[in-house]
Amino acid sequence: MAFWIAISPHNHIQKTTSALMRLVIYATIPGILAQWYFFGWGNLIHIFLATTTALVAEFFVLSLREKKIPQQIFDGSAVLTAVLLGVSLPALAPWWISVIGAAFAVVIVKQLYGGLGHNPFNPAMAGYVMLLISFPVQMTSWQPPLELMAHNLDFVNTLTMIFSGFTSEGFSLEQLKTHVDGYTMATPLDTVKTNLTLGLTISESMNNTVIGDHFGIGWEWINAAFFAGGIFLIYKKAIDWVTPFVFLFSLFVFTFISFMLSPDTSSSTMFHWLNGACMLGAFFILTDPVSGATSTKGRIVFAALAAFLVFIIRQYGGYPDAVAFSVLLCNMCAPLIDQYTRPRTYGHSESKGEGNA
Amino acid sequence: MSGLTEYKELAWQGLWKNNPGLVQLLGLCPLLAVTSTATNAIGLGVATLFVLICSNATVSLVRNWVPKEVRIPIFVLIIASFVTCVQLLMNAYTFVLYQSLGIFLPLIVTNCAIIGRAEAYASKNPIKQATFDGIMMGVGFLLVLFVLGALREILGQGTLFDGAHLLLGEWAHVLRIEFYHLDSQFLLAILPPGAFIAMGLLIAFKNAVDEKVAQAKPKKDVEEIERVRVNFDAS
What we know:
Chain A has 19 helices and no strands. Chain A has helices at residues 17-27, 29-39, 42-64, 69-73, 77-88, 95-110, 123-134, 136-139, 155-164, 173-177, 188-197, 202-205, 219-235, 242-261, 269-273, 278-285, 296-316, 323-340, 350-356.
C-alpha cells in the first residue's frame, strides 16, 4: 500500500483491506499461469493446500483469540500469504511442506504477533525460510521445466508425486529430475553456483541445458509475468513504485559493478533479474505494507539494502537464491530505518523537527 | 508462620509460581541451548539441581561469616567448586553425555537461577529451608528443561528418550519411544529458534493456565507471604 501524502481536503478512496488483498492476489495470476505452463500443476496444488491450511489455521487462532471470525478470516491476508508461499515452493515438494509452512506462517508469524498489521516479518517468507532451514532436501529439489523432462508429468502424476513421493508410473523425484541424457538438473541459479565452484566461467555455464537460449527456461517468463502483475499493481496504486524500482535498480548497480570487475564469475543483471524469486520479491514481498519501511526515504533504504543482500548472498553465499533471507533481514531493519528516515513535519525546520522528535 | 506451610509455599514457588525457567526466566542460555533432546535436558537439569542444592546449603551455612561487600565473589566461588565436582563426575561416569553437553556444563557457574537463589534466599535463611528451596527450584528448572526437551525431541525427531542410556546406563535402551518415523528431521525444532518458539509457547501456556485458575476461583483474601521475590535484575 502506498503512503500518499497530500494536502486537505482528503478524499478517501474507501479501500478495504480485503479489496486490496484481492487485487494483489489477482496480480499474481499471470505469474502462476506462467509457472503452470512451464512447470506443471505442482505449484497450483501447493497453493490450494496452503490456502486450505491457512484458512483452517486462521479460523483456529481467531476462535482462540475470540476475534470476529467472519470479517477477519476472509480479509484475504491469509489467502495471500498462502498464495505467495505456494508460489515459492518447489513444485514437487511433498504435501506436508506446504501444510507446515502455511500453518507456521499464519499461526506463529502472523497471529502470535497480534494478527494482521502487527507482524514484524513477512509471513510467507518467514514460512518459506522456516521450511528451507528445517527441510533442506525437500526444499531444494527443484523440478526442471516440463520440456526438459524425460517423463510425462500430467495432473494425476503430479498429484500422486506430491502425496506419495512417486508418480502413478512409479518414478521417484530423483528420476523425474533426470534429463533424457541421464544427468540431474537444477535451477539456473543453482547451476551457475555449482559450476563456479567447479571452475567453469559464467559464459560456459550459460550453455547449460536448463538455461536455454536466454536466462533460464521457464524462469525468465515466470519473472516477466510477475513483473507484469507488479506493473498492474502500481497502475492500480495498490503498491508504491519506489520499492520495486529501487530494488531492481540497486540490483542492477551491484551486478553491473561486479560484472565489470570480474565478468567470468559474475552473472549478468538480466540473469539476476529474471531468475529465482527476484520479481516476486520486488513487487509482491518487499512492498508488504506491514513489515516494510514506511516513508519514501525509508523505502529507498529498505529496497537498496534488500538488493544488496540478494546480490551478496547469490554471489558469495551458500544458498542459490536469497530473496526470502534478505526480506527477513530487511524486515528486522525496518523499525531502525523508520526511526532515522522520519519525514519532516510540515511547519518544522529540519533541525527543530529532530529536536521535537 | 508454621514450618509446614513455609515448606509448602517454597515448593509451590519453586515448582510453579516463581519457576526459575518459566517465570523468572533465569538461566535461559543453557535452557535453550541443550534441550534438543529429553536426555540432554535431564542431564543438564540434574547437574543444575545438584549444584543448586549444594550451593544453597553451603551459602546458608556460611551466611553469617561472609562480609556483605564480597558476598557475590564468594557465592560464585562456592558454585564454581560444585560445578567442577559435577563436571568431573559426569566426565567420569557419563562421558558421551558430558561431551554432548559441552560448554554448557561449566557454564552452570554463570546460571543466574543459581546465584539468584543464593543471593535472594539462601543467604538470608537457615540451612533447612535453603536446602529445600534449592531442591524445589532445581526440580522446577529440571521439569521445564525436561518438558522443553521432550517437546523438541518429539517434534524434531519423533522420538522420546533417544540416547537415555548415555545418562542412565545400558538398561535405558528400552526407554526409547518412537512416536512416528521421520525420514527427515524437523530441523527447526532442534535448532535454537525452535527452542525460543517452544519456550514462548510454554510460558504462554503457563500464563493461560494461571488466568483460567484465577477466573475460576472466587476472590478471597490471600495470606500475605513474607518472602523476597527475585526481581529480574538481581543477577
